[in-house]
Design a protein that fits this description.
By secondary structure, this protein is mainly α. It has a domain of 35 residues. The protein is built from one helix and no strands. The chain starts with a helix and ends with a helix.
Length: 52
């Protein structure tokens, strides 16, 4: 039978893994947003250059 202490360690381990994963997903979302903004800026530059 699992001891309560082992369950506590398991809880902390899963919590740490979840927080690390959540931080990684948030950082990916922020990078994606920045890339979309830069891509939109480049598209506008190309369109403006084509109009001249």
């Amino acid at each position: 039978m699992l001891e309560a202490r082992n369950l506590t360690y398991m809880f902390y381990g899963y919590s740490a893994a979840f927080l690390i994963l959540l931080g990684y997903v948030i950082s990916l979302a922020m990078r994606e947003r920045q890339l979309r903004g830069e891509l939109d800026r480049v598209r506008r530059m190309v369109q403006d250059a084509g109009k001249k």
